[in-house]
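Researcher: Let's do a round of design. I'm pasting the structure tokens now; please hold your answer until I've finished.
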């Protein structure tokens, strides 16, 4: 059971209602994560704004989902593993083997694999990556703008991982548990 309230519509702060309705229009559902974050209209607006902006970036949906899975596994976030396994499969059209590899920080796509190795270093070093780590991701074909997008995707996914880990948000996707 969630440790932070998942408010029903009549309990949701008024300023969060239009934001949650926009999520509903886009996804056809309002995930529990959004409802939890919606306890703070400012937090929900900030999260949705950054998420929306990064969705327009050069990284693309497939690699964004790959990054989300790698970060969720590293942060042991069952909610985000569940959500991004579902989104990765159904929206980004990643197959089961790729989803599993992504959780381990790997990919069958060489360029994506380089991004996930970099992501693993960003998370593991809290951003204090080596010159070699940065050179490797650039050498795989990512320009500096894309490197910044990767770092912001790590930060955005870490944010949701931490919210869900603190809240122990009730999972409303097919449940996936972190590896042991």
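Researcher: That's everything. Go ahead.
Model: Designed sequence:
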């Amino acid at each position: 059971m969630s440790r932070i309230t998942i408010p029903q519509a009549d309990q949701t702060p008024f300023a969060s209602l239009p934001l949650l309705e926009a999520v509903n229009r886009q996804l056809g559902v309002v995930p529990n994560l959004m409802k939890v974050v919606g306890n703070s209209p400012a937090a929900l607006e900030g999260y949705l704004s950054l998420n929306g902006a990064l969705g327009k970036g050069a990284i693309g949906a497939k690699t964004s989902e790959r990054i989300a899975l790698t970060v969720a596994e590293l942060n042991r976030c069952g909610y985000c593993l569940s959500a991004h396994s579902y989104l990765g499969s159904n929206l980004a059209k990643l197959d089961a083997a790729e989803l599993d590899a992504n959780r381990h920080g790997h990919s069958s796509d060489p360029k994506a694999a380089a991004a996930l190795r970099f992501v693993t270093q960003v998370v593991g070093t809290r951003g204090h990556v080596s010159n070699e780590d940065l050179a490797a991701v650039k050498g795989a074909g990512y320009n500096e703008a894309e490197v910044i997008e990767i770092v912001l995707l790590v930060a955005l996914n870490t944010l949701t991982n931490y919210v869900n880990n603190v809240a122990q948000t009730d999972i409303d996707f097919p449940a996936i548990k972190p590896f042991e």
